[in-house]
Specification:
By secondary structure, this protein is mostly helical. Helices cover about 65% and strands about 0% of the residues.
């Protein structure tokens, strides 16, 4: 499903302030280091997280809370900008205001997950944005059942990680089912995600995770097993 950038006066204000603020603080030497560390996924401005977030607070000072239309416009427009810090700004904004978004925001989230994909944006979108949308509308579980089968590894990783913060509200049957379905996936990022979501759920129900790992040990990658059993 294609997504379009909606009209938003708030987005106009925020993007004007954001570009002026972030670009003025750019550090080219640090930017080169960050780009290399992130495997050249995108250019960077060279802003450290504390600097970036302090600037973001200034950018948003005095602005109203965004609604879903504003969130959509800001996120999509940030994603169109080349430097990665703008995507980080959008992710932070969405994390803060995901409860302002309906289930209709899921196609936008998928677009963000599948565009210039790397773990730095995908994991936060999975756990804090997609996870929040599904928690608010359990009807979206059907979409997660489709995402886990997706050929795009980042979409499948998002399905694996969307319950990462659910704790006792985790749908364990669905979690274990997803892990079993993708147990043979050859990619590191899927294998790592399987171990990560199991390890996180082990903080809530360690016996269930240990039992699942023992049952599926023959199919799970060694990486997934190691990650799943890291917690005592």
């Amino acid at each position: 499903m294609s997504v379009t950038v909606p009209r938003s006066d708030l987005a106009d204000t925020v993007l004007d302030r954001l570009v002026a603020s972030y670009s003025a603080a750019a550090d080219p030497a640090r930017a080169a280091q960050m780009r290399a560390y992130m495997k050249d996924i995108a250019p960077f401005l060279g802003l450290t997280s504390p600097v970036r977030r302090e600037l973001a607070r200034t950018v948003l000072a005095g602005t109203p809370r965004p609604d879903e239309r504003d969130c959509t416009a800001i996120a999509l427009r940030c994603w169109e900008l080349p430097e990665r810090e703008y995507a980080y700004f959008a992710v932070d904004l969405l994390r803060r205001h995901v409860k302002r978004c309906s289930s209709g925001f899921l196609p936008v989230a998928r677009h963000l997950v599948t565009t210039r994909s790397w773990w730095d944006t995908v994991d936060a979108l999975a756990a804090h944005v997609v996870g929040g949308l599904v928690a608010a509308d359990p009807g979206l579980r059907a979409a997660m059942d489709e995402w886990i089968e997706d050929e795009d590894l980042w979409v499948a990783r998002t399905a694996l990680l969307h319950q990462l913060r659910y704790k006792e509200d985790t749908d364990a049957e669905r979690l274990f089912g997803y892990c079993a379905r993708r147990a043979g996936h050859p990619d590191f990022f899927i294998r790592k995600a399987i171990g990560w979501c199991l390890r996180e759920y082990a903080k809530t129900d360690p016996d269930a995770v240990r039992a699942f790992v023992e049952r599926e040990r023959g199919r799970l990658a060694p990486l997934s097993v190691r990650e799943a059993l890291k917690n005592p």
